[in-house]
Amino acid sequence: MIEFQGVSKWYGTLKVLKDISATVDKGTTIVLCGPSGSGKSTLVRTVNRLEPIQEGTITVAGADIYAKSVNVNTLRMGIGFVFQQFNLFPHLTVIDNVMLPLRRLHHQSRKEALPTALLMLERVGLADKAHALPADISGGQSQRVAIARSLILNPEVLILDEPTSALDPEMVSEVLKLLRQLSGEGMTMMCVTHEMGFAREVADRIWFLKNGELTFDAKPLVFFSPEAHPDVRGFLSAIQKNH
Amino acid sequence: MLEIIREYGLMLLVGEYPHGKLGGLALTLIISIVSLAVTFPCAVLIALARTGPLRTPKAIASGFVHSVRAVPLLMLIFWAYFALPIVIGFPIDATYTLILAIVVYQAAYLGEIIAAGIEGLPKGQSEAAKALGLGYVPTTFRVILPQAIFNVIPGIVNQLTTIIKESSLGSIIAVSELSYVMLQVNSNEVTKPLQIFGILAATYFILCFALSQATNWLERRIANRRTGRVVVEAVA
């Protein structure tokens, strides 16, 4: 579904992604983890061209995302993206946030878009908040709305960049529950997270990045076993100390 | 003072209207509101050019802003009044000349205010719009501008205060706005400049003070809305 081949990226002279090659199979969930500054957010942001790359190729559903024939906005419509800070549009109600892509990209009228958007809000359990403003709902609810908005055009891939890092602990579970549900439904997902419980339970593979390198790519069973890369074991024990 | 108000009150409010041209306070208000209304779309365009991705519009807008900010408004009025008719070959009504000069002048300032509103938005807003697949136009008009303009409403109202004060320069080119009317009253009455210009000062003060209070009130309301959002984020 998504294939990275020799992907490198520089910020000025700083090489932040180093020759990354890996594959995300259709219907699988990949969890990306690693110390901060390891390039995991940058890597997921390259998939919808929020971050340009200087070397290598990325293909989504067989098509090179940098091919001339690829319209960047069409590419992005097929890839849902969820941010750490939710980035809901504060001047629009919850339902208007979710409807925006339908209205502006599929050119549907309010009336046409409304049932689809309400259905999506029901799916994330927030139909009752449809007419609230983002300022009036909790962080967990905001992130669920952001997920609903990113799914409204039925993308083939969902990318999540630390979706629970800005949330209070008691709100993390509601978002993870939703992600678990989506993963169970066969959505192809790439999720940057430090929630190792979630990774162990939901991920098909876990990618570990360090200093811009993909140093370890394994199934959860191997990732959490003593055979894992020493960097991974160091990282896991550091995380455990914090919890 | 009351005597003057009794005698010239109507003139102060509407000039010679309905027997002659509209003037006085009414004209001051009309000039100010029309100027702001015409300035606003120009300022939005300048702000978009200043903050947008294209180099040429950015350079043109920035050249315009810097040039205008480096000259006094009075000079723009002289240009519009004396030089422009020669360039275009026909005369323009002094009132329109004044409005034109104010629009050119204020577009630079209001443009900067709106540009600041655009740049003050969190980067995540335009990123989220991009990630959804929205292009420049829907991102700008559905996501960025509604928020940016809402946030700078106090600045816009504040510019209206400035425009009201600037419109008094119209008296130099015989636009019969409030200051010009009071100058005429002064030449009729000769011996009462203290009272006459006292009334003029009080009128501007009441108008502009009320507007600046409105600005404060708007600022507080907008801050409250923002805090509402910040609190939710902090809780999150």
UniProtKB/TrEMBL annotation, chain A:
It is found in: Cell membrane. It holds the Pfam family ABC_tran. It comes from the Bacteria. It is a peripheral membrane protein. The keyword Cell inner membrane does not apply. GO terms for molecular function: ABC-type amino acid transporter activity; ATP binding; ATP hydrolysis activity. One of its GO terms (cellular component) is plasma membrane. Belongs to the ABC transporter superfamily. Residues 2-236 form the ABC transporter domain. It comes from Phyllobacterium brassicacearum. This is Amino acid ABC transporter ATP-binding protein. Signal peptide: none annotated. Keywords: Amino-acid transport, ATP-binding, Cell membrane, Membrane, Nucleotide-binding, Transport.
Automatic annotation (TrEMBL), chain B:
One of its GO terms (biological process) is amino acid transport. The keyword Disulfide bond does not apply. Its main location: membrane. It comes from the Bacteria. InterPro entries: AA_ABC_transptr_permease_3TM, ArtM/GltK/GlnP/TcyL/YhdX-like, MetI-like, MetI-like_sf. Pfam families: BPD_transp_1. GO terms for molecular function: transmembrane transporter activity. Residues 25-215 form the ABC transmembrane type-1 domain. Keywords: Cell membrane, Membrane, Transmembrane, Transmembrane helix, Transport. The keyword Glycosyltransferase does not apply. Belongs to the binding-protein-dependent transport system permease family. HisMQ subfamily. This is Amino acid ABC transporter permease.
